[in-house]
Automatic annotation (TrEMBL):
InterPro entries on file: 2-MeCitrate/Citrate_synth_II, Citrate_synth-like_lrg_a-sub, Citrate_synth-like_sm_a-sub, Citrate_synthase, Citrate_synthase_AS, Citrate_synthase_bac-typ, Citrate_synthase_sf
List of catalytic residues: H262, D313
BP terms from Gene Ontology: carbohydrate metabolic process; tricarboxylic acid cycle
Keyword Transferase: yes
Keyword Oxidoreductase part of the UniProt annotation: no
Protein name: Citrate synthase
Keywords for this protein: Transferase, Tricarboxylic acid cycle
Length: 371
């Protein structure tokens, strides 16, 4: 390396490959999945249709959707051996550890684990997507000392997810809100967890390994873990009248404010307006509009103090809290959604693979003799 080598810490701004799956445009503050604006997909399409779009590049015809739905509904139940393994895990480990472990075990049992043909990759992606709600729901229930609730084949993906988690049918307004969050979380180009999945795939490792690694990358609070951290912040602050003082203290002690800022968007996150509206609907639905006061006060204070805007995790955290999910389950909800984007990227990477292996500038000691 020469003295003029430019080092891009965190690969910021580095264009590592091409992708046809989604386009994040910070200039226009837009996000397209396969060309479609995400806010329009969230308003008009089901999560099942969006999953199909991400995997296949086009929205499904009714027949294609019916075929995918039939497979998804058959694979909703957690196999006994995976369920038993999950139940063995300590209840004080993080639910992301449970997700990561469950996906790894599912891979070990998958008959097509080592088959990386496009057909097998798609089949594995679909099965994993279908079964993840059962992992998340089981984990929340076992921690609460509740019985497992089996899936229902007569419900759509989101309604069934809520059914398995809470053991009762969710109201349509809640299903709609949850569904929108699943669509918004599904895909976001070369974010850290997706890039992790692509790095793992680039070594020709299997799809379950890529998703297991991606879950590890998503867990951190600088990425997916922020939605949980936002709820913790809200609980620490307590009420809107304390938000400004809390923020002053937090900034004075150089704390990162979770749910704010983004590596790519510098003027707000394209998904926030839609998720903020969803949070507003949920707050009205549950009669909890005081949450919105705190939300707005903290956002306004952060923008006026630092000019840093919220990211998707900021409205998603309190929205999931209102629905009734335990805080430590929020990032696994992100997993259940993002598994669609991750696996679309696994397939795209495999179709035009090159081992991902950057270089670094060595700054350790010069060569020396072993004493
Ligand atoms: C769905 C998602 O994964 S979205 C991301 C979720 N993550 C979070 O919400 C965690 C909080 N946010 C952050 O830590 C950051 O904004 C990141 C990691 C998301 C992006 O960070 P980067 O692009 O690397 O920017 P970086 O962290 O260098 O921040 C640039 C400056 O803004 C400040 N900044 C950025 N975000 C925040 C924040 N949330 N709170 C306080 N200051 C912040 C940094 O301290 C830094 O200030 P400095 O130049 O005075 O040192
Ligand atoms: O793109 C990123 O860096 C993080 C993000 O918003 C996401 O993965 O949804």
């Amino acid at each position: 390396m020469t003295e003029t080598t430019e080092i891009r810490k965190g690969l910021a701004g580095v264009v590592a490959d091409t992708s046809a799956i989604s386009k994040v445009n910070p200039e226009t503050n837009s996000l397209l999945y396969r060309g479609y604006p995400v806010q329009d997909l969230a308003a008009r399409k089901s999560f099942e249709e969006v999953a199909y779009l991400l995997w296949h590049g086009e929205l499904p015809t009714p027949a294609q959707l019916a075929e995918q739905t039939a497979v998804e509904r058959v694979h909703r139940e957690l196999p006994d051996n995976v369920r038993d393994a999950v139940l063995e895990l300590p209840t004080d480990c993080h639910p992301m550890d449970v997700c990561r472990t469950a996906v790894s075990i599912l891979g070990a049992h998958d008959p097509q684990a080592e088959d990386s043909s496009p057909e097998a990759e798609l089949a594995k992606a679909l099965r994993l997507w279908a079964v993840l709600p059962a992992v998340v729901a089981l984990d929340q229930r076992r921690r609460r000392g509740q019985e497992l609730v089996p899936p229902r084949e007569d419900l759509g993906y989101s309604a069934n997810f809520l059914w398995m988690t809470f053991g009762e049918e969710a109201e349509p307004a809640v299903v709609k809100a949850f569904e929108a969050s699943m669509v918004l979380y599904a895909e976001h180009s070369f974010n850290a967890s997706t890039f992790t999945a692509r790095v793992i795939t680039s070594t020709l490792a299997d799809l379950h390994s890529a998703v297991t690694g991606a879950i590890g990358a998503l867990k951190g609070p600088l990425h997916g873990g922020a939605n949980e951290a936002v709820q913790a912040t809200f609980e620490e602050i307590g009420s809107a009248d304390r938000a400004e003082a809390w923020l002053e203290d937090a900034l004075a002690s150089k704390k990162k404010i979770m749910g704010f800022g983004h590596r790519v968007y510098k003027n707000g996150d394209s998904r926030v307006p839609t998720m903020r509206a969803v949070l507003g609907d949920l707050a009205e639905h549950y009669g909890r509009t005081e949450v919105l006061d705190l939300y707005e006060t903290l956002e306004n204070a952060m923008v006026s103090r630092k000019n840093i805007k919220p990211n998707l995790d900021y409205p998603a955290g309190p929205a999931y809290h209102l629905i009734g999910f335990d805080t430590n389950i929020f990032t696994p909800l992100f997993v259940a959604s993002r598994v669609t984007g991750w696996t679309a990227h696994v397939m795209e990477q495999r179709a035009a693979n090159s081992l991902i292996r950057p270089v670094c500038e060595y700054v350790g000691p010069e060569q020396r003799e072993v004493p």
